[in-house]
Amino acid sequence: MNVDPGRFYGRRALLTRLGRELAQVAATGRGRMLAVRGRRQVGKSRLLTHFVETCGRPYLYTTAVKNASPSVQLAGLTRDALASTTPLPEASAVFASPPASWDEFFGLLRLTLQRSPAVVVVDEFPWAVQADPTLEGTLQNAWDRTLENLPVLLVVVGSDVAMMERLTEHDRPLFGRAGIVVVQPFDPYECAELLGPDRTAVAAFDAHLVTGGYPRLLGRLAASGTAEDFVREQLADETSDLAVLAQLALDAEFPPDSQARRILTAIGSAEAGPVTFSRVTQTIDGDTATVQTAVTRGLKVLAGIGGVVAVDLPAGAAPNSRLRRYRVADPYLRFWFRFVGPQLANIARGRGDLAIDAFGRGWPSWRGKAIEPVVRAAVLRLAPDLGPLNDADAVGGWWNRDNSTEVDLVAAHGPLVRAVGSVKWRTTTPLTAADAAALRSARHVLPGADAAALVAVCPAGAAGDADVDLVLRADDLLAAWAVRTS
To answer: Treating both helix axes as pointing N-terminal to C-terminal, what angle do 102-112 and 70-83 enclose, rounded to 10 degrees?
Structure first.
């Protein structure tokens, strides 16, 4: 399949949000500000470009330049103002020459916003702030004095997730002024939409696990065939998108020699088995007390800013439980740390075949575990429509202290366990009676689950003698992300 580069895929909810914000501007004549954040290559610029070019209003879309001086930033802004396909009113006269400062720019902007609602987008805003640390305060003053009283939707955008999160905190100038919009990678349903109707639901989930839903990677995969075909092609080239995009993103946020990067590597490169605190500390050199303190701090940061690391607890466990497990939250980064990062040296010396062989050996088991968080997210979304789960407000997994018993899926309403499930990500072999028997045995070990419904999650369905209460296939799960209209 060749992805149509002129077609815009997905993002319906975000476009609806942006349209609603602009409609409020038009209805009230008052300004609204949004702070849009998301990791690099997630599609923020593509989303906002599509929005400004289809919203039917005048706009200015400008992008800051990394390490450029304020005068260079403002000169570029002036060129962008004149290049807009639907320019701001009187833009050619107002921006005939570059403003000398951001304060002057906001003053000139006021002159163009008197007639009708308009959109102003400043992309890579953190780079502009790095060049002029007074920009946040300058924008606050301009907003409070004039811009908030004019019909403008002002959008600041950034890929530096940590900086964009801090931007709206209580001790920063824009606190209380900017609404927050987070652009995530494509969800599995959006992956399916881009791949096209000829691909199966399982193919969409495979694509999501490998690319994380990043549009650029997903477009490359769509042109390759299966997810496995795509990975094999990409692992043969050290400059491929699959190899490079993660490195660029990680190097920008977590330098290779940083403690956070070492922790991420320890979590993401694990071949099998749960990643616990002790397992992470065992991979880092140093005396025990120092390493434990460093890892504790590092995990807190990684699980906080941007949610790079997800912390999983057994269903019903207290937040401070010692049974925590850790995983890289972003599916693409999780895949990269497992199959790409450890093989970069081999790929660079022309031995991509070794990387491809390692992928072939590890992919089936890794895929079966990596899909579990996606399945749980889908079941939580679907729960209101699933009889025995219709009041479930939490879906997770469960394991005991020695890991002798694990349950892939536990749906609960408060302390009440409504259902337990087994995830067997197989396309040709249904969940068997033996699989169901193992689930029943585990149900009796899980506290309060004796009456819980049994759920089979398997693309191939469940055998007739499995005797479970609910069967969910890949198509059922994919529907969890379909946009619902009232």
So the answer is: 20
